[in-house]
From TrEMBL:
Main location per the UniProt record: membrane
Domain of life: Eukaryota
Descriptive protein name: Amino acid transporter transmembrane domain-containing protein
Transmembrane segments: 21-44, 50-71, 92-111, 117-135, 173-200, 266-285, 305-326, 365-385, 391-409, 430-451
InterPro entries in alphabetical order: AA_transpt_TM
Alphabetized Pfam families for the sequence: Aa_trans
Topology relative to the membrane: Multi-pass membrane protein
Length: 464
Protein backbone atom coordinates (compact mmCIF):
# COMPACT_ATOMS: atom_id res chain seq x y z
CA UNK A 1 0.00 0.00 0.00
CA UNK A 2 1.25 3.53 -0.81
CA UNK A 3 2.58 5.39 2.25
CA UNK A 4 0.32 8.39 1.62
CA UNK A 5 -2.75 6.14 1.72
CA UNK A 6 -1.83 4.12 4.80
CA UNK A 7 -2.86 6.04 7.96
CA UNK A 8 -0.83 3.71 10.17
CA UNK A 9 2.34 5.06 8.58
CA UNK A 10 1.42 8.72 9.05
CA UNK A 11 1.70 11.10 11.99
CA UNK A 12 -1.12 13.31 13.23
CA UNK A 13 -0.18 16.05 10.73
CA UNK A 14 -0.36 13.71 7.75
CA UNK A 15 3.40 13.40 7.31
CA UNK A 16 5.30 10.12 7.24
CA UNK A 17 5.90 8.90 10.80
CA UNK A 18 8.94 10.41 12.42
CA UNK A 19 11.53 7.98 13.79
CA UNK A 20 13.73 10.16 16.00
CA UNK A 21 14.21 9.35 19.68
CA UNK A 22 16.06 10.49 22.79
CA UNK A 23 19.39 9.25 21.43
CA UNK A 24 19.14 10.99 18.05
CA UNK A 25 17.87 14.22 19.64
CA UNK A 26 20.74 14.22 22.15
CA UNK A 27 23.17 13.55 19.31
CA UNK A 28 21.90 16.55 17.36
CA UNK A 29 22.19 18.75 20.47
CA UNK A 30 25.76 17.65 21.17
CA UNK A 31 26.70 18.19 17.52
CA UNK A 32 25.56 21.79 17.68
CA UNK A 33 26.59 22.65 21.25
CA UNK A 34 29.93 20.89 21.66
CA UNK A 35 31.54 22.86 18.87
CA UNK A 36 35.07 24.11 18.58
CA UNK A 37 33.97 26.98 20.80
CA UNK A 38 34.52 24.55 23.65
CA UNK A 39 38.26 24.91 23.02
CA UNK A 40 37.95 28.67 23.62
CA UNK A 41 36.54 28.13 27.10
CA UNK A 42 40.01 27.83 28.65
CA UNK A 43 40.70 31.36 27.38
CA UNK A 44 37.36 32.49 28.82
CA UNK A 45 38.24 30.87 32.15
CA UNK A 46 41.59 32.70 32.14
CA UNK A 47 39.80 36.04 31.82
CA UNK A 48 37.28 35.27 34.57
CA UNK A 49 39.34 33.16 36.99
CA UNK A 50 38.38 29.99 38.82
CA UNK A 51 35.50 31.19 40.97
CA UNK A 52 33.67 33.49 38.50
CA UNK A 53 34.48 31.13 35.60
CA UNK A 54 32.95 28.00 37.12
CA UNK A 55 29.96 29.90 38.51
CA UNK A 56 29.33 31.57 35.12
CA UNK A 57 29.37 28.25 33.24
CA UNK A 58 26.94 26.69 35.72
CA UNK A 59 24.62 29.71 35.51
CA UNK A 60 24.58 29.63 31.70
CA UNK A 61 23.86 25.88 31.77
CA UNK A 62 21.02 26.31 34.28
CA UNK A 63 19.41 29.17 32.36
CA UNK A 64 19.73 27.21 29.12
CA UNK A 65 18.12 24.09 30.58
CA UNK A 66 15.20 26.11 31.96
CA UNK A 67 14.50 28.07 28.79
CA UNK A 68 15.00 25.14 26.40
CA UNK A 69 12.41 23.20 28.38
CA UNK A 70 10.06 26.17 27.92
CA UNK A 71 10.77 26.09 24.18
CA UNK A 72 9.99 22.36 24.12
CA UNK A 73 6.58 23.03 25.69
CA UNK A 74 5.83 25.53 22.92
CA UNK A 75 6.40 23.02 20.07
CA UNK A 76 2.62 22.54 19.92
CA UNK A 77 0.03 25.32 20.12
CA UNK A 78 -1.90 26.00 22.28
CA UNK A 79 -1.62 22.74 24.25
CA UNK A 80 1.90 21.27 24.60
CA UNK A 81 0.58 17.69 24.20
CA UNK A 82 -2.32 17.79 21.75
CA UNK A 83 -1.96 21.14 20.00
CA UNK A 84 -0.93 21.90 16.44
CA UNK A 85 2.76 21.47 15.62
CA UNK A 86 5.08 24.42 15.14
CA UNK A 87 7.67 23.29 12.62
CA UNK A 88 10.11 26.11 13.32
CA UNK A 89 11.13 28.51 16.08
CA UNK A 90 9.66 31.38 14.05
CA UNK A 91 6.34 29.61 13.67
CA UNK A 92 6.12 29.08 17.44
CA UNK A 93 6.83 32.77 18.07
CA UNK A 94 4.14 33.68 15.56
CA UNK A 95 1.62 31.33 17.21
CA UNK A 96 2.18 32.66 20.73
CA UNK A 97 3.33 36.25 20.23
CA UNK A 98 2.02 37.40 16.85
CA UNK A 99 3.36 38.75 13.57
CA UNK A 100 5.61 41.59 14.75
CA UNK A 101 7.57 39.31 17.06
CA UNK A 102 7.61 36.72 14.26
CA UNK A 103 9.50 39.12 11.97
CA UNK A 104 11.84 40.22 14.78
CA UNK A 105 12.60 36.60 15.62
CA UNK A 106 13.21 35.64 11.99
CA UNK A 107 15.72 38.43 11.43
CA UNK A 108 17.74 37.35 14.48
CA UNK A 109 17.35 33.61 14.02
CA UNK A 110 18.42 33.36 10.41
CA UNK A 111 21.04 36.06 10.81
CA UNK A 112 22.49 33.94 13.60
CA UNK A 113 22.40 30.80 11.46
CA UNK A 114 24.22 32.62 8.68
CA UNK A 115 26.79 33.94 11.14
CA UNK A 116 27.40 30.50 12.60
CA UNK A 117 28.21 29.04 9.18
CA UNK A 118 30.79 31.80 8.72
CA UNK A 119 32.18 30.97 12.17
CA UNK A 120 32.40 27.28 11.31
CA UNK A 121 34.27 28.13 8.11
CA UNK A 122 36.79 30.10 10.19
CA UNK A 123 37.14 27.30 12.74
CA UNK A 124 37.49 24.54 10.15
CA UNK A 125 40.17 26.39 8.20
CA UNK A 126 42.14 27.32 11.33
CA UNK A 127 42.25 23.65 12.27
CA UNK A 128 43.38 22.64 8.79
CA UNK A 129 46.22 25.15 9.07
CA UNK A 130 46.99 23.87 12.59
CA UNK A 131 47.47 20.33 11.20
CA UNK A 132 50.11 21.64 8.79
CA UNK A 133 51.72 23.72 11.56
CA UNK A 134 51.92 20.72 13.91
CA UNK A 135 53.87 18.79 11.28
CA UNK A 136 56.04 21.84 10.50
CA UNK A 137 56.96 22.42 14.17
CA UNK A 138 57.76 18.72 14.62
CA UNK A 139 60.10 18.69 11.64
CA UNK A 140 61.75 22.11 11.99
CA UNK A 141 61.59 22.79 15.73
CA UNK A 142 59.25 24.75 17.95
CA UNK A 143 60.91 28.09 17.14
CA UNK A 144 60.62 27.66 13.37
CA UNK A 145 58.58 30.05 11.21
CA UNK A 146 55.44 28.02 10.57
CA UNK A 147 52.78 30.49 9.50
CA UNK A 148 50.46 29.82 6.60
CA UNK A 149 47.62 31.61 4.85
CA UNK A 150 44.15 30.44 5.83
CA UNK A 151 42.64 31.23 2.43
CA UNK A 152 43.39 27.99 0.53
CA UNK A 153 41.97 25.97 3.41
CA UNK A 154 38.84 28.10 3.66
CA UNK A 155 38.30 27.68 -0.07
CA UNK A 156 38.71 23.91 0.21
CA UNK A 157 36.29 23.79 3.15
CA UNK A 158 33.81 25.86 1.14
CA UNK A 159 34.03 23.58 -1.90
CA UNK A 160 33.20 20.57 0.28
CA UNK A 161 30.21 22.43 1.77
CA UNK A 162 28.93 23.24 -1.73
CA UNK A 163 28.54 19.50 -2.37
CA UNK A 164 27.12 18.66 1.07
CA UNK A 165 24.67 21.55 0.91
CA UNK A 166 22.83 19.78 -1.89
CA UNK A 167 21.49 17.24 0.65
CA UNK A 168 17.80 18.21 0.44
CA UNK A 169 16.47 17.05 3.81
CA UNK A 170 17.49 17.72 7.44
CA UNK A 171 16.16 14.26 8.36
CA UNK A 172 18.84 12.65 6.16
CA UNK A 173 21.65 14.28 8.12
CA UNK A 174 21.51 11.99 11.18
CA UNK A 175 24.54 9.98 10.00
CA UNK A 176 26.55 13.18 9.51
CA UNK A 177 25.37 14.55 12.85
CA UNK A 178 26.31 11.31 14.66
CA UNK A 179 29.80 11.35 13.13
CA UNK A 180 30.24 15.01 14.04
CA UNK A 181 29.11 14.41 17.62
CA UNK A 182 31.59 11.55 18.00
CA UNK A 183 34.49 13.69 16.77
CA UNK A 184 33.47 16.55 19.07
CA UNK A 185 34.11 14.26 22.03
CA UNK A 186 37.39 13.28 20.40
CA UNK A 187 38.92 16.74 20.20
CA UNK A 188 37.42 17.86 23.52
CA UNK A 189 39.07 14.92 25.29
CA UNK A 190 42.34 15.38 23.40
CA UNK A 191 42.47 19.04 24.43
CA UNK A 192 41.56 18.16 28.02
CA UNK A 193 43.96 15.20 28.10
CA UNK A 194 46.93 17.21 26.84
CA UNK A 195 46.13 19.93 29.40
CA UNK A 196 45.91 17.34 32.18
CA UNK A 197 49.22 15.79 31.12
CA UNK A 198 50.85 19.24 31.24
CA UNK A 199 49.57 19.78 34.79
CA UNK A 200 50.60 16.29 35.97
CA UNK A 201 54.12 16.81 34.57
CA UNK A 202 54.41 19.92 36.70
CA UNK A 203 54.46 22.30 33.72
CA UNK A 204 51.19 24.04 34.53
CA UNK A 205 51.28 27.83 34.78
CA UNK A 206 50.11 29.98 37.73
CA UNK A 207 46.38 30.66 37.86
CA UNK A 208 44.21 33.03 39.87
CA UNK A 209 40.81 32.85 41.54
CA UNK A 210 39.67 35.97 39.67
CA UNK A 211 41.62 35.76 36.42
CA UNK A 212 44.63 37.62 35.08
CA UNK A 213 45.53 40.50 37.36
CA UNK A 214 45.65 44.15 36.37
CA UNK A 215 49.23 45.27 35.85
CA UNK A 216 51.84 46.22 33.22
CA UNK A 217 50.54 43.58 30.80
CA UNK A 218 46.85 44.41 31.18
CA UNK A 219 45.03 47.62 32.00
CA UNK A 220 41.81 47.74 33.99
CA UNK A 221 39.74 48.61 30.91
CA UNK A 222 41.33 45.82 28.88
CA UNK A 223 40.47 43.29 31.57
CA UNK A 224 36.84 44.42 31.59
CA UNK A 225 36.59 44.13 27.79
CA UNK A 226 38.09 40.62 27.89
CA UNK A 227 35.65 39.58 30.63
CA UNK A 228 32.74 40.74 28.46
CA UNK A 229 34.18 38.87 25.46
CA UNK A 230 34.59 35.74 27.61
CA UNK A 231 30.87 35.90 28.46
CA UNK A 232 30.11 35.87 24.73
CA UNK A 233 32.29 32.78 24.22
CA UNK A 234 30.46 30.93 27.01
CA UNK A 235 27.08 32.08 25.68
CA UNK A 236 27.82 30.67 22.22
CA UNK A 237 28.83 27.34 23.70
CA UNK A 238 25.37 27.09 25.33
CA UNK A 239 23.41 27.70 22.14
CA UNK A 240 21.21 25.39 20.05
CA UNK A 241 17.93 27.33 19.96
CA UNK A 242 18.32 27.89 16.23
CA UNK A 243 17.70 24.23 15.45
CA UNK A 244 15.66 22.99 18.43
CA UNK A 245 12.39 22.70 16.50
CA UNK A 246 14.15 21.03 13.59
CA UNK A 247 15.35 18.47 16.13
CA UNK A 248 11.91 18.11 17.73
CA UNK A 249 10.32 17.62 14.32
CA UNK A 250 12.31 14.40 13.94
CA UNK A 251 10.91 12.83 17.15
CA UNK A 252 8.42 9.99 16.95
CA UNK A 253 4.94 10.57 18.36
CA UNK A 254 4.43 7.52 20.57
CA UNK A 255 5.42 9.74 23.51
CA UNK A 256 4.81 13.51 23.82
CA UNK A 257 7.54 15.35 21.94
CA UNK A 258 8.03 17.93 24.68
CA UNK A 259 8.78 15.22 27.27
CA UNK A 260 11.25 13.52 24.93
CA UNK A 261 12.92 16.84 24.19
CA UNK A 262 13.18 17.75 27.87
CA UNK A 263 15.00 14.47 28.50
CA UNK A 264 17.28 15.22 25.56
CA UNK A 265 17.88 18.71 26.95
CA UNK A 266 18.97 17.25 30.29
CA UNK A 267 21.28 14.72 28.60
CA UNK A 268 22.74 17.19 26.13
CA UNK A 269 23.22 20.11 28.52
CA UNK A 270 24.65 17.89 31.28
CA UNK A 271 27.16 16.47 28.81
CA UNK A 272 27.86 19.97 27.57
CA UNK A 273 28.53 21.35 31.06
CA UNK A 274 30.88 18.53 32.04
CA UNK A 275 32.90 19.01 28.87
CA UNK A 276 32.91 22.78 29.34
CA UNK A 277 34.29 22.52 32.86
CA UNK A 278 36.86 19.93 31.82
CA UNK A 279 38.16 21.83 28.80
CA UNK A 280 37.97 25.24 30.45
CA UNK A 281 39.41 24.22 33.81
CA UNK A 282 42.19 21.94 32.60
CA UNK A 283 43.21 24.33 29.83
CA UNK A 284 43.47 27.21 32.28
CA UNK A 285 45.42 25.06 34.75
CA UNK A 286 47.89 24.19 31.99
CA UNK A 287 48.47 27.66 30.53
CA UNK A 288 47.45 30.15 33.22
CA UNK A 289 47.39 33.80 32.15
CA UNK A 290 48.87 32.91 28.76
CA UNK A 291 46.02 30.59 27.75
CA UNK A 292 45.62 30.76 23.93
CA UNK A 293 42.27 31.50 22.29
CA UNK A 294 42.03 27.89 21.11
CA UNK A 295 44.08 25.32 23.02
CA UNK A 296 44.56 23.10 19.96
CA UNK A 297 45.13 25.69 17.21
CA UNK A 298 46.93 28.23 19.44
CA UNK A 299 49.86 25.83 19.96
CA UNK A 300 50.11 25.66 23.66
CA UNK A 301 50.92 22.02 22.81
CA UNK A 302 53.52 20.86 20.31
CA UNK A 303 54.01 17.21 21.20
CA UNK A 304 52.94 14.55 20.60
CA UNK A 305 52.44 16.34 17.29
CA UNK A 306 50.35 13.54 15.83
CA UNK A 307 47.83 13.85 18.69
CA UNK A 308 47.59 17.62 18.22
CA UNK A 309 47.05 17.03 14.51
CA UNK A 310 44.45 14.33 15.22
CA UNK A 311 42.54 16.69 17.51
CA UNK A 312 42.40 19.22 14.70
CA UNK A 313 41.27 16.54 12.22
CA UNK A 314 38.38 15.85 14.59
CA UNK A 315 37.54 19.57 14.69
CA UNK A 316 37.44 19.71 10.89
CA UNK A 317 35.14 16.68 10.67
CA UNK A 318 32.85 18.17 13.30
CA UNK A 319 32.75 21.55 11.55
CA UNK A 320 31.81 19.86 8.28
CA UNK A 321 28.78 18.19 9.91
CA UNK A 322 27.78 21.07 12.19
CA UNK A 323 27.85 23.51 9.25
CA UNK A 324 25.12 21.52 7.54
CA UNK A 325 23.06 21.04 10.71
CA UNK A 326 22.98 24.83 11.10
CA UNK A 327 22.65 25.75 7.42
CA UNK A 328 19.84 23.37 6.47
CA UNK A 329 17.09 25.29 8.36
CA UNK A 330 18.20 28.47 6.57
CA UNK A 331 18.19 26.69 3.22
CA UNK A 332 14.75 25.29 3.90
CA UNK A 333 13.06 28.59 4.82
CA UNK A 334 14.36 30.34 1.69
CA UNK A 335 13.25 27.46 -0.53
CA UNK A 336 9.83 27.28 1.13
CA UNK A 337 9.42 31.02 0.57
CA UNK A 338 10.40 30.70 -3.09
CA UNK A 339 7.97 27.80 -3.51
CA UNK A 340 5.12 29.86 -2.05
CA UNK A 341 5.99 32.89 -4.21
CA UNK A 342 6.38 30.96 -7.48
CA UNK A 343 4.48 27.66 -7.08
CA UNK A 344 4.34 26.95 -10.83
CA UNK A 345 8.02 27.59 -11.58
CA UNK A 346 9.87 24.47 -12.80
CA UNK A 347 13.18 26.20 -12.04
CA UNK A 348 12.27 26.43 -8.36
CA UNK A 349 10.19 23.32 -7.81
CA UNK A 350 11.16 20.63 -10.32
CA UNK A 351 13.87 18.04 -9.77
CA UNK A 352 15.76 16.42 -12.64
CA UNK A 353 17.02 12.84 -12.20
CA UNK A 354 20.75 12.34 -12.74
CA UNK A 355 22.54 8.99 -12.59
CA UNK A 356 26.29 8.49 -12.38
CA UNK A 357 27.23 4.81 -12.12
CA UNK A 358 25.71 3.47 -8.92
CA UNK A 359 24.72 6.94 -7.71
CA UNK A 360 21.45 8.62 -8.62
CA UNK A 361 19.88 11.85 -7.41
CA UNK A 362 17.41 14.57 -8.32
CA UNK A 363 18.94 17.95 -9.11
CA UNK A 364 16.90 21.07 -8.45
CA UNK A 365 18.46 24.05 -10.24
CA UNK A 366 17.23 26.68 -7.78
CA UNK A 367 18.63 24.69 -4.86
CA UNK A 368 21.90 24.13 -6.72
CA UNK A 369 22.43 27.80 -7.58
CA UNK A 370 21.15 29.42 -4.36
CA UNK A 371 22.92 27.09 -1.93
CA UNK A 372 26.18 27.30 -3.89
CA UNK A 373 26.00 31.11 -3.91
CA UNK A 374 25.33 31.12 -0.16
CA UNK A 375 28.35 28.94 0.64
CA UNK A 376 30.57 31.15 -1.55
CA UNK A 377 29.46 34.33 0.25
CA UNK A 378 29.94 32.71 3.70
CA UNK A 379 33.44 31.57 2.69
CA UNK A 380 34.45 35.03 1.43
CA UNK A 381 33.26 36.63 4.70
CA UNK A 382 35.25 34.06 6.70
CA UNK A 383 38.35 34.85 4.65
CA UNK A 384 37.90 38.56 5.37
CA UNK A 385 37.42 38.17 9.17
CA UNK A 386 39.23 35.02 10.38
CA UNK A 387 39.31 36.08 14.05
CA UNK A 388 38.33 33.07 16.14
CA UNK A 389 37.57 34.34 19.66
CA UNK A 390 36.09 37.68 18.65
CA UNK A 391 33.76 36.19 16.04
CA UNK A 392 32.61 33.43 18.39
CA UNK A 393 31.91 35.98 21.11
CA UNK A 394 29.84 38.07 18.70
CA UNK A 395 27.78 35.06 17.63
CA UNK A 396 27.19 34.09 21.24
CA UNK A 397 26.17 37.60 22.20
CA UNK A 398 23.77 38.09 19.29
CA UNK A 399 21.85 34.90 19.97
CA UNK A 400 21.86 34.60 23.74
CA UNK A 401 19.32 37.16 24.98
CA UNK A 402 16.72 37.10 22.20
CA UNK A 403 16.72 33.41 21.26
CA UNK A 404 17.61 31.65 24.52
CA UNK A 405 15.83 33.96 26.98
CA UNK A 406 13.54 36.69 25.63
CA UNK A 407 11.33 34.75 23.19
CA UNK A 408 11.04 31.62 25.40
CA UNK A 409 10.08 33.78 28.41
CA UNK A 410 7.46 35.71 26.44
CA UNK A 411 6.01 32.53 24.92
CA UNK A 412 5.85 30.91 28.36
CA UNK A 413 4.01 33.92 29.78
CA UNK A 414 1.52 33.80 26.90
CA UNK A 415 1.04 30.02 27.07
CA UNK A 416 0.55 29.86 30.83
CA UNK A 417 -1.31 33.21 30.92
CA UNK A 418 0.91 34.48 33.73
CA UNK A 419 -0.55 37.64 35.21
CA UNK A 420 1.31 40.89 34.65
CA UNK A 421 3.29 42.10 37.72
CA UNK A 422 2.80 38.78 39.53
CA UNK A 423 5.89 37.42 41.30
CA UNK A 424 6.62 34.87 38.56
CA UNK A 425 6.12 37.49 35.83
CA UNK A 426 8.56 39.83 37.57
CA UNK A 427 11.19 37.09 38.03
CA UNK A 428 10.94 36.09 34.37
CA UNK A 429 11.32 39.70 33.25
CA UNK A 430 14.30 40.14 35.57
CA UNK A 431 15.96 37.09 34.00
CA UNK A 432 15.34 38.58 30.57
CA UNK A 433 16.73 41.99 31.54
CA UNK A 434 19.92 40.60 33.09
CA UNK A 435 20.43 38.44 29.98
CA UNK A 436 20.02 41.52 27.79
CA UNK A 437 22.77 43.29 29.74
CA UNK A 438 25.08 40.28 29.22
CA UNK A 439 24.32 40.27 25.48
CA UNK A 440 24.93 44.01 25.14
CA UNK A 441 28.25 43.86 27.01
CA UNK A 442 29.54 40.81 25.10
CA UNK A 443 28.47 42.18 21.70
CA UNK A 444 30.18 45.52 22.35
CA UNK A 445 33.40 43.82 23.43
CA UNK A 446 33.49 41.46 20.45
CA UNK A 447 32.80 44.25 17.91
CA UNK A 448 35.60 46.25 19.51
CA UNK A 449 37.93 43.24 19.19
CA UNK A 450 37.03 42.61 15.53
CA UNK A 451 37.53 46.31 14.70
CA UNK A 452 40.99 46.29 16.29
CA UNK A 453 42.00 43.16 14.36
CA UNK A 454 40.69 44.43 11.01
CA UNK A 455 42.88 47.54 11.34
CA UNK A 456 45.84 45.37 12.36
CA UNK A 457 45.64 42.86 9.48
CA UNK A 458 45.04 43.43 5.79
CA UNK A 459 41.85 41.89 4.42
CA UNK A 460 42.39 38.36 3.04
CA UNK A 461 46.03 38.46 4.14
CA UNK A 462 45.73 36.92 7.63
CA UNK A 463 48.24 34.20 8.47
CA UNK A 464 48.10 31.81 11.40
Amino acid sequence: MDVERDPSRLDDDGRVKRTGNLFTATTHIITVVVGAGVLALAWAMAQLGWIPGIITMLIFASVSLYTYNIIADCYRFPDPITGKRNYSYMQAVNSYLGGTMHVFCGSILYGKLAGVTVGYSITGSLSLVAIKKAICFHRKGHDAYCKFSNNPYMIGFGILQVFLSQIPDFHKLTWLSTLAAATSFGYAFIGSGLSLATVIQGNGQPTHLFGKKIGPDQSESEKIWKIFSALGNIALASHFATVIYDIMDTLRSDSPENKQMKSANVSGITTMTILFLLCGGLGYAAFGDGTPGNILTGFGFYEPYWLVALGNVFIVIHMVGAYQVMAQPLFRVIEMGANMAWPSSDFINKGYPIKMGFLSCHVNFFRLIWRTAYVIVATVLAMAMPFFNEFLALLGAVGFWPLIVFFPVQMHIAQKQIKRLSLKWCMLQLLSFVSFLVTAAAATASIRGISKNITKYKLFMYKQ
